[in-house]
Amino acid sequence: xxxxxxxxxxxxxxxxxxxxxxxxxxxxxxxxxxxxxxxxxxxxxxxxxxxxxxxxxxxxxxxxxxxxxxxxxxxxxxxxxxxxxxxxxxxxxxxxxxxxxxxxxxxxxxxxxxxxxxxxxxxxxxxxxxxxxxxxxxxxxxxxxxxxxxxxxxxxxxxxxxxxxxxxxxxxxxxxxxxxxxxxxxxxxxxx
Length: 192
Prior knowledge:
Elements: H1 5-21, H2 23-41, E1 46-49, H3 53-66, E2 78-80, H4 85-95, H5 102-108, E3 114-118, H6 125-136, E4 140-145, E5 158-161, H7 167-189
Parallel strand pairs: 1-2, 1-3, 3-4, 4-5
Helix pairs in contact: 1-7, 2-7, 3-7, 5-6
């Protein structure tokens, strides 16, 4: 049966209500904000990795940090590992698609950086590989995923889970959490 406009909105509202009621998630988001503020304050950078729609989320969030979010301020260092087609295709061709993010993490991440790893299923092999390399390099890891127990989960210092198994609802939740993190970081680092 085709979805209706009201059904889609009601599904999204239920997911947002569950996020709003999840005190553990709120505590985790606060911890992520503090991690990011500390990392940026020490001259480190943020890295973002994800596939498909999550790749677009990565680019969106990197743009929010580098440009501006709620007000004009100095740029913050953030890189979407999803954007350079030459790097992605070279690594994919030479090493395999499973290494497109881990090889970039190994090349540009430094101790104290923060990797945001997006996978709606929690099982994307290239995301798991990037998280493993980040751990080796002492790069903090934040995973964004859905309700299912994924292979990426044990490799994340902080795990932000949307309580849904529906990919669009998970992605919408990731956007809300990303905007929340960005807004709180911006407020804590800068005065409007």
